[in-house]
Amino acid sequence: MIKILIADDHAIVRNGLNNVLKDEPDMQVIGEACDGEETVRQALKLKPDVLLLDILMPQGGGLTALANIIDKLPTAKVLILTISDREDDLFKALRYGAHGYLLKEAGINEVVDAVRRIAAGEVILSSQMVANLVSEFRQKSHNGEELNLSSREMEVLRYVGEGCTNSEISAKLFISESTVRTYLRRLLEKLHLRNRSEAVAYATRHHVSFNHNP
């Protein structure tokens, strides 16, 4: 019997999932939660086999709840069920320890199948999210968008991604601000970015930091 905890801030969603899953002979809904903090409490108390978790919830949100749960229950299996098709949310969910990511437009049979497969140790991703990632990868390849940066340009990109100003980067790298601007201009050209804001977004999306390799 797969024990399931449903976490979503909309009662109609929780009730709908409960009604569907309770009819499955190998599944049992053991609890519900309506916000991030309650999700953590319920997960630690009930220790479900699979946690169905929405991202967009009050009191901390689903991703914060996910990180807290995995920190205390490293073997927990979590299936994200959300309306968010943002790649950043997908990457964060997987990095925080989720075993699956489905959009709420998924069919009931797809959700039920995902619960079983995640309980068995598989990793499940929404077909639409996979299609989006493949499309983006092909577009980047077509455009020749590669990280062809010098070591110094990479350092500047990492500091930009962490929110540092030109002055702060100058002090950290012991170079002048004009030199920082030169490196920034070069990396923007190489990555086909228009401005600093796009460089910050790029660094965030591709996890370019001093803690993550690009």
From TrEMBL:
PANTHER family: TRANSCRIPTIONAL REGULATORY PROTEIN YDFI, TWO-COMPONENT RESPONSE REGULATOR. This is Response regulator transcription factor. Residues 3-119 form the Response regulatory domain. The keyword Phosphoprotein applies. It comes from the Bacteria. InterPro entries: CheY-like_superfamily, NreC/VraR/RcsB-like_REC, Sig_transdc_resp-reg_C-effctor, Sig_transdc_resp-reg_receiver, Tscrpt_reg_LuxR_C, WalR-like. The modification 4-aspartylphosphate is found at residue 54. The keyword tRNA processing does not apply.
